[in-house]
Amino acid sequence: MSAAETIGEMARAARGAVAGLAGAGTAAKRAAIRAAAGAIRVRAEDLLAASAVDVAAARAGGTSESLIDRLMLDTARIEGIASGLETVAGLDDPVGEVIKAWEQPNGLRFERVRVALGVIGIIYESRPGVTADAAALCLMAGNACLMRGGSEAARSNRVLLDCVAAGLAAAGLPAAAVQMVPAGDRALVGAMLAAHGLIDVIIPRGGKGLVARVQAEAKVPVLAHLDGINHVYVDASADLATAAAVVVNSKLRRTGVCGAMETVLIDRAASADLARGVVAALLDGGCAVHGDAGVMELDTRVTAAADADWDTEWLDAVASAALVDGVAGAIAHIGRHGSAHTDAIVAGDAAVAARFLGEVDSAIVLWNASTQFADGAEFGFGAEIGIATGRLHARGPVALEGLTTYKTRVYGAGQVRA
Amino acid sequence: MSAAETIGEMARAARGAVAGLAGAGTAAKRAAIRAAAGAIRVRAEDLLAASAVDVAAARAGGTSESLIDRLMLDTARIEGIASGLETVAGLDDPVGEVIKAWEQPNGLRFERVRVALGVIGIIYESRPGVTADAAALCLMAGNACLMRGGSEAARSNRVLLDCVAAGLAAAGLPAAAVQMVPAGDRALVGAMLAAHGLIDVIIPRGGKGLVARVQAEAKVPVLAHLDGINHVYVDASADLATAAAVVVNSKLRRTGVCGAMETVLIDRAASADLARGVVAALLDGGCAVHGDAGVMELDTRVTAAADADWDTEWLDAVASAALVDGVAGAIAHIGRHGSAHTDAIVAGDAAVAARFLGEVDSAIVLWNASTQFADGAEFGFGAEIGIATGRLHARGPVALEGLTTYKTRVYGAGQVRA
Asked: Residue B354 contacts by C-beta under 8 Å, 6 or more apart in sequence?
């Protein structure tokens, strides 16, 4: 069977499972996810053993320790995966929600109602936990999914998928609702990306290389973000304590997350105290600062920024820093160098903040708050499957609602069209 | 310049125009669209002349009369285009609408606000009116668009685009908000379809060949429908008068529209009067009926359906007809043969209707109403740019709201993440 035939067969079975999930309802979905969590706890020893084999093979193959860390499961992480599933099972079911209802003068009543998105392809690497958490989110929104993990985590993923399968079986839900695409055969990834009409959306979870490949090759729509080149703009109207706290937290709370700040922009009209204070706070916090000429004058520890720095996602304790001509300058800089992910302003002047929030065309824009709030849980969504910076369907943190679509129900009394 | 470079340059200019439109606001967009309508009226003679040349060239090239009819502009059609623009200018501006607002326990306030989708590619053929109406809808939702019409309508399209450009200029809006991609060079269409990240969505308007090519080749997301294989299911609980009226109107009001019924499904448990009455109503209305064995027994005028008929979009006074085992049989038939566009049930039994509306997974599902209501204006949207049967972003009639996306504004007081 060709890769396309294999994926086609799995996707058709998944499509059938979507109908089964719609019929089964909320309680069955919750029961399946909770039973999967239980199975993960029961099989913790198996998971540790599988992970040990994955890790040993990766180490033997010369994998870097940072990748090994993502791959590795320990008791705490296994419990984290199980309790994460219980969180998902406790979320409100989005399916069936009437988003909007209206009536036309001819008496026709319309209801826009939320339904499952359909068949979702998850392409991921390293972290085996994705096998459980992405599958649970898809399932809770009524979707079937094809999970394609990396071969480096194949043994851990297999055990986790068995636990999800056990959950589905316990709740009487179709096994085809969560299927594993065999790791190793790269052609299967290509077939998933080409499966227009069979797979409704692809969600990549992993490093930039994976996301870039998926975005470049996919014929199926993709929900993802490639870069998080996020900015904090400090307006002259900002107070120093707020600005320093927001900038330092945005950059340094965790430098490796996609919501981390990469560039700080400082109003050229800011007081010397404010401008120096913000830069010093970053440097004192252990962050290297690559500045333009104006920023270099503020602190001797600042080194010269290269042109490429404005387009660099450091994901490290390094920040680019520039002086800009007020909010207009900040908006222009972000327009040129941003990645439409998350950008923040620190300002006391509400009109300036409103202009920034209005004109910066990013998925998330914040006023006087850290960019590190770019996260579904912090938005109150309970959990997220990822952050999307595309412009269609879902933008920003993608949670259960982003994993649904809608249809329109029309109620008549025999109306015909003139 | 290569086709990709040409499209890249146009799309980047369009992206700049989107920011200009956001800044200009509702009144300017309305003024531009009204001024374009005015220009179309003023230049009616030029339009008639351009159309005459297009039509003569098409006729000389052996184009069919039905295509010539789509291509041709006359005084009434020109007035229709102008007044259509005025309708669009009168619609509520979707941009800026706060879709949802909420707060988190840490005091962060969230607003999901509607913004322009961005840069839209319209690929169309024959009907020159699309040049004005699609551009106006894109513009009213704050978008810039690249319009690529067919070479058969190039002269008419050019004059209409000049009118739109005059409208933009009169309202002080950027000329790059509506640009025409030169007709004739097929490579430019390929470049539009490949312009991932430059063009946000492609909307094809035209025949099935055009839509199929766009869907097959596009790397950019597409909003469209390929087929409208729509069903009306007549349940045993239906009353004959309603069933006959809905079925006949669904099929015969206009046979060439995508919302027309193509197949009627009749409950095997329906009374002989009901089943015969529905089939006779279609036949008496001038519709050929291709039936399965059961339907053939109902009326001697019914001819035998071929297997392919269940998957055929007739777009003509022809209907496929089958007996099915109740609502479950209808749902199964539609699942196998439908195109997820529009399907209706005629039933007196509300529980049966609810099951149909719940389980038939089409963009539009109706109870006791004609499938020909599948239209943005009939939904109360004022106008539509098309009907989408995909599952992402917008489903069913796509109007102004479907031409927007959203961002999240977050209001803080210095919050940082723990």
From this structure: none
Domain with CATH 3.40.605.10 in chain B: 3-224+394-410
Q: Cite the beta strand spans of B217-260 per DSSP E.
A: 230-234
Ramachandran region, residue A386 (left: φ > 0; alpha: ψ -120 to 50; beta: rest): left
Q: Give the full edge-to-edge strand order of the sheet including A109-116.
A: A98-103, A109-116, A404-415, B364-369, B342-346, B230-234, B261-267, B318-324, B288-291, B303-304
Is B407 close to A392, i.e. CB distance below 8 A?
no
Sign of CA dihedral A336, B27, B110, A224: negative
pLDDT of residue A302: 98
Locate CATH 3.40.309.10 in chain B. 230-373
**Cα-Cα-Cα-Cα dihedral sign, residues A323, A328, A334, A337:** negative
Q: Find the mean pLDDT for residues B129-152.
A: 96
DSSP strand E in A151-260: where?
Answer: 178-180, 201-205, 230-234
Between CA B260 and CA B253 the distance in angstroms is 8
pLDDT per position as a tens digit, A290-319: 999 999 999 999 999 999 999 999 999 999
- Angstrom distance (rounded) from CA B244 to CA B272: 14
Residue whose entry in the numeric block shows the structure tokens 């390094």: A318
**How many residues are present in chain A?**
418
**Would you state the pLDDT for residue A279?**
98
Touching B: A residues 352-381, CB under 8 Å: 357-359, 361-370, 372-373, 378-380
Q: Hey, what are B14's tokens?
A: 């369009």
CATH architecture group of domain B3-224+394-410: 3-Layer(aba) Sandwich (3.40)
Count, in order, helices (H) and strands (E) of chain B: 14, 16
Interchain contact A391–B (C-beta under 8 A): yes
Q: Residues with Cβ < 8 Å from B95, sequence gap 6 or more?
A: B22, B26, B114, B115, B116, B141, B142, B404
Q: Kindly report the backbone phi and psi dihedral angles of residue A41, in degrees, each rounded to the nearest multiple of 5, phi listed first.
A: -65, -45
Residues of B in contact with A372 (CB under 8 A): 416-417
pLDDT band at B383 (very low <50, low <70, confident <90, very high): confident
Q: What residue type is assigned to position A215 of the chain?
A: Q
Tokens 């396309």, located at residue: A4
Q: Which residue of A has its CA nearest to B25?
A: A358
The per-residue DSSP string of A347-402 comes to: -S-HHHHHHHHHH--SSEEEEEE-GGG-STTTTT-S--SEEE-SSSS--EEE-TGG
| Residue A166: its H or E element | helix A154-170
Tell me how crowded residue A77 is: count the other CB atoms within 10 A of its CB: 16
What count of other Cβ atoms lies within 10 Å of the Cβ of residue A75? 11
Distance from CA of B304 to the nearest CA of A (A): 28
Q: Quickly state the pLDDT bin for A383 (edges 50, 70, 90).
A: confident
Q: How far is Cα B43 from Cα B78, in angstroms, rounded to an integer?
A: 10
The SS3 of residue A269 is coil
Distance CA A207, CA A228 (A): 12
**Angle in degrees, CA A219, A96, A204, rounded to 5:** 30
Q: Complex ipTM above 0.90? A: yes
The topology under which CATH files domain A230-373 is Aldehyde Dehydrogenase; Chain A, domain 2 (3.40.309)
Residues 197..216 of B with a Cβ closer than 8 Å to A: which? Answer: 200-201, 215-216
Residue type, A61: G
Supply the pLDDT for residue A138: 98
Mean pLDDT of A44-53: 97
d(CA B130, CA B63): 20
Which amino acid is present at A417? Answer: R
Residue type, A404: T
